[in-house]
Amino acid sequence: MRSKSVSLLLPFVGLLAGSVVVVLANPRADSGTIEGKVTYTGTPPKMKPIDMAKEPTCAKEHNPPEMAQNVVTGPGNVLEYVVVYISAGGPPSPTPTQAARYDQKGCMYIPHVLPMQVDQPLQIYTDDPFAHNIHPLPKLNPEWNKSQPPGAPPIETKWSKPEFIEVKCNIHPWMHGYFAVLKTSRYAVTDNNGSFSLKGLPPDKYTVTSWQEQYGTQSQEVTLAAGETKTITFTYKVTPYLY
Amino acid sequence: MKSITSVVAFFFGSLGLALAAGTTPCFAQTDIHFHTVTGPMEAHIGGLAGHSSDGKTLYRRFCVGCHGASGDGNGENAIWFDPTLGFAKPRDFTLGVFKCRSTPTGALPTDEDLFDAVTRGFVTTNMPEWRSLTNQERANLVAFVKTFSTRWQTDKAGTPIAIPPEPPAKIESILHGRELFQKMECWKCHGSEGRGDGPSAATLTDSKGNPIRPYDFTTGERFKCGVSNHDLYRIFMTGLDGTPMPSFADNIKPEEAWDLVHFLRTLQVSIKTPELGTFRQWVSAHPGQLKPIGQEAPPGK
Fold first, then answer.
1. What's the complex ipTM?
2. What is the mean pLDDT of residues B103-107?
3. Which residues of A are less than 8 Å from B251 in CB distance?
4. Of A235, B16, B244, B273, which has fewest CB within 10 angstroms of its CB?
């Protein structure tokens, strides 16, 4: 039997150590793995330092300043914060009961990109001594906008349609992240080595999809035999400007 | 038959914008193909039932020039509305996202909410008031507006938030409201005197990426979403969806919300509200007792 438990790395750890989010613990004996890297060709845009002067506490906390996260690259032409997930194949994935956790800390969203399954509980925490407003900008799900002053309890919510949802704080316009709402809980986010790993996959023909906020989605077919590990690479053509 | 051209030109005229009326095709004479996405819709306002089938002609006559044949807000006159000058673009009905709601943030408004918005219009924008139409006509229009988004089929309208009776606007209430204005950081957008010039004001955009300004309380202009203290209560407890103006319902208790309402009235210095009188009297009797609103000095200073 497939276990319901989901092991999400703590978001904080995720940011520091790179967030290879591996889902579905206790895999079947015949299950396999799809792993690999997300790389790029071309010249990526130069990320600018974030100016937090409007929120002095945050400006002080991030010295030297944090860089924007629209396109985060690593040594060896790899891309971080790319969501890689199973878009077809394998048994249906039950909705995790454990909440996905999003944090606001020092005027940053942690993690920058948070994957979750449709209808999975989502908790949004704040750790900052001043107010934020959390303003997700979905197209298919209902848009909302809530203030979260210091010390406020987490916002508990969920999304009922699969979609990549941009998240903003209007008070601190540099705060910018994504909810990747997927039909599956078989997903990973690339770490600072551009690596991902999807474990616990029973033998089947899979479609693996990657999503990067600037460059969109790409898909590959992967046929996995019992107990097999397959290595694949996604390569994005990048451009030196943001759009 | 009165054409949409003259109706629209009238509103532009009142704004002092030159619109060459001759270049605007007359909608009433061409047959427009409406891009609606649902079947027939109804709207219920009290005992009154509106029907989209009856709203269609009215929409073609009065609304299409701004809101467009597919309801996406790209009517041919929309290009004249410049958000950088503070003029909102016409609402995109395909999104099913509305500013003036009695319902929580993220929920659809009630039919009454839409009916009231259409009746009242949006002062400070190009959305006219439509009091000249009958109740039945406005109910029909609301039903037709709902045909542009499938959200009206998949989601139910939200439940209006509960509003306790308003307590008297005593000075204690006003002063507590002032603390909330500081603590909830309304001033970050609206400014410490409510002039719409807070530290975050300059960078605000609506959900379509257009620049948007926070309301300037000192002008005393009508709110987009009403005039009464009840309307004001609803505005910050439900938020104006599609804009940076968030909902505070999770963090301001219903009783306390009235205190904030009373304080906000003191910011409307140009309309001399009774709350402003009470507040000024107290301030002159207690000089130097109020801490200024805004960024607090860092500890240790």
1. 0.86
2. 98
3. 147-149, 152
4. B16
